[in-house]
Amino acid sequence: MEIRKLNTLRGLAALIVFVTHFSDITHWLDGSLGGGSGAYGVMLFFMLSGFLMSYLYIDKAFNPVNIKSYFLARAGRVLPLYLLIVLCSYLLSLADKDFLYHIPDFKSLVGHLLFLYGESVLWSIPAEIHFYFIFIIFWAFSKNRAGYIYLLILAVMILLFFSNFPKIHGDINGVPYNLFSVLRTLPYFFIGVIFGMHYKQLKVPEYLRKNRFIVVLCLIPLMYPEFSPVSSDAKMKMWLSYEVLLVMSSVFFCLVFLVPDNNVLLANKLGDFIGKISYSFYLLHLPIIVQVNQFDVSVELKLLLSFILSVLAAYLSYRSFEKPVARLVRSNLFNKLNQQGALKAL
User: Fold this and answer.
1) Is there a contact between 20 and 36 (Cβ–Cβ < 8 Å)?
2) Residue 339, Cβ neighbours under 10 Å: how many?
3) Distance CA 12, CA 123 (A)
4) What is the pLDDT at residue 343?
5) Which pLDDT value is given to residue 341?
6) Can you tell me the distance from the alpha carbon of 326 to that of 318, in angstroms, rounded to the nearest whole number?
7) What is the 3 state secondary structure string of 136-157?
8) What is the pLDDT of residues 262-306, one digit of tens each?
9) pLDDT (tens digit, 9 = 90+) per residue, 171-196?
10) What mean pLDDT comes out for the span 48-77?
11) How far apart are CA 291 and CA 300, in angstroms?
12) How high is the mean pLDDT of the chain?
């Protein structure tokens, strides 16, 4: 069962990242919408990722067939475009044309291909891939030992807190790695997993399911460093603040559990469209903003051009590459599952 409003939420996350990068690069509105605030969009991405993995798979039997289906479906959605962009970035960097991302040598390429490191916005994809394997552990416990999932999450979050989120990064024989990017995002993935585990069972009283809860989205800009009333260092740490985790988790909970599924602001065709192209939009928008910023035009026109070109590039990527590849993966998966079913029948 599709939760349609999640499409708009995914698109909103991508737009937050877009606006932040545009503000940082062009100093639009004196950079007040930048300063690393795109982290809040990525937090939404990771909570959505954990939620959907849990919602779609946690109730399924933990067996080789379903595990293969899970990995192929996840890989078919994320890997093709990521690998294409990484390889193109590497080739362009060798030609001294950094139109995409700076991957200057073979060892840096290996770091990206092994999901140990990510340049610029690519950092989030290795973290996502690591989450795919972490979820397998949760899935294995879900049938008869679901309590261990909560204990593991609690233990890891306490450990991260007392170890002050260890800055594990460096290189191995020149191959870069950055596990810190995975560790700092784990709490958001965990929250998504927990919410996904309870979405089908939790019966929210009708008097609490109100469209007005959509105003919780206003809490996100209130955490921007330029607008935040918070005076502690939490407003600058972002990823390392459990206070930020509490607020973002509350926003996510209200939008997913309390806002009705037919809310017109979250369930609409525009939200469906932006949500579908959000992944390619996320990966492609930054190079486009950098190129558009070289034009001698007003910042407002730069914003419009950057957005239109980013949407156009994302749409073309989705229709001509992502969707066909994902369809091919699903088709092969379906055929293999049918073959396995036929063999078992024999």
Assistant:
1) yes
2) 10
3) 20
4) 46
5) 53
6) 10
7) HHHHHHHCCCCHHHHHHHHHHH
8) 999 999 999 999 999 999 999 999 999 999 999 999 999 999 999
9) 999 999 999 999 999 999 999 999 99
10) 92
11) 15
12) 91
Provide CB contacts within 8 A for 108, sequence distance 6+: 90, 117, 119, 175, 176
Non-local CB neighbours of 207 within 8 Å, separated by 6+ positions: none
Whose tokens are 């810190």? That residue is 180
299-to-17, 116, 281 alpha-carbon distances in Å: 18, 36, 20
pLDDT tens readout for residues 235-255: 678 888 889 999 999 999 999
Determine the residue type at 323.
K
Residue 221 has pLDDT above 60, yes or no: yes
Predicted confidence at residue 1, as pLDDT, reads 66
Per-residue pLDDT, 345: 45
Left, alpha or beta for 36 (phi > 0: left; psi -120 to 50: alpha)? left
Q: What is the pLDDT of residue 231?
A: 77
SS in 3 state form for the chain?
A: CCCCHHHHHHHHHHHHHHHHHHHHHHCHHHHCCCCCCCHHHHHHHHHHHHHHHHHHHCCCCCCHHHHHHHHHHHHHHHHHHHHHHHHHHHHHHHCCCCCCCCCCCHHHHHHHHCCCCCCHHHHHHHHHHHHHHHHHHHHHHHCCCCHHHHHHHHHHHHHHHHCCCCCCEEEECCEEEECHHHHCCHHHHHHHHHHHHHCCCCCCCHHHCCHHHHHHHHHHHHCCCCCCCCCCCHHHHHHHCHHHHHHHHHHHHHHHHHCCCCCCCCCCHHHHHHHHCHHHHHHHHHHHHHHHCCCCCCHHHHHHHHHHHHHHHHHHHHHHHHHHHHHHHHHHHHHHHHHHHHHHHC
Query: Dihedral of CA 134/55/325/81: which sign?
Result: negative
What average pLDDT does the segment 326-342 reach?
66
The tokens of 43 are what?
Answer: 């937090």
Q: Under 8 Å CB-to-CB from 132, ≥6 apart: which residues?
A: 53, 71, 74
Domain extents for the chain? 5-345
